[in-house]
Design a protein that fits this description.
heterodimer, A: mainly alpha, 7 helices, elongated, B: 180 residues, mainly alpha, Rna Polymerase Sigma Factor, Chain: A, 2 domains, 9 helices, 71% helix, 0% strand
Amino acid sequence: MSKELKNITNNVMNQIRQGRIKMRPKVYFIIGSILTFLGSISAFLISIFLIGLIRFSLRTHWGRGAQYKLDQMLSDFPWWIIIFAIISLTIGIWLIRKYDFSYKIKPRIIILGFILAIVVAGWMVDITGLNDNLFRSGPMKGIMNNYFQNNDTTLQPNWRK
Amino acid sequence: MDVIKELTDEEIVEKVRTSNQDLYSVIIDRYQKRLVRYVNNLIKNEDKAIDVVQESFIKAFVNLNNFNIEKKFSNWIYRIAHNQAINLAKKYQKETPLLEGWDFKSNDDIEKDFEEKEIKEKVEKCLNKIPLLYSEPLSLCYIDEKSYEEISDILRIPMGTVAIRINRAKKLMKNICQKN
């Protein structure tokens, strides 16, 4: 037994000395952490935007012929986004659990917290009017123009009322 | 060398990272025996346990720059060994019976040492009869003498779950092992 244990030390140290195994540089882990962080932030922001878009879509479509418009919206709804969101969320939680100490919190609390944070943030962005700015002049202007053209409608200054 | 022996794991790791990679052998010597016993408890195969521990040390070395020096190295290396062992167990999906005697820390009192060894061997044999879900935290607690917080860090489960599993493990051991 002790001989085999001795072999562990020798085997590992020989590989280190011969350069067959090398320590990954610190920058490797720093870049990994930055990418994970940016990925999480991006997923969060995209989700907030989607909530804003859904609320916007509901307001502009609701009224006469609501049933028809609801059917139209459901048929036009990009369902792949939901699948994408579920996959992203699963990968995100896996990453968080792997690299962080979130295991001290129950997974269902993390999921619920994440969803709640997105919904609240999306709602806040919408009611503060930040969405309007983004839709009119921000990075979403192009997307919204296409949306209006496809739906044969225009955005009125008082559309929120 | 005596000076090095007095250094903590984290201090040695820092030296390995910055100046002297040979000091990694000190880390290996400190942990290999404990880790082989721990992994053997998980996969029930001594030869494979030695391979797993060797792979764990290699993996730990490769990722040493990712280790947070402010945390306990012990928990980190146990976690790596745990992952390696579980991956292997999943790969082969079989458990073979075991366990032969293991050397534990030496004691001047031979009689006391023998009693301790006998008790630990009995506990280890008994541990094999209860599910891994419960036996692993119990063995970490009583054989590896880890605190609930450390077990929580190693197994990545909340401390409350650690307490529940250890409690259930004790009850299971009482029911199963006292009959034999």
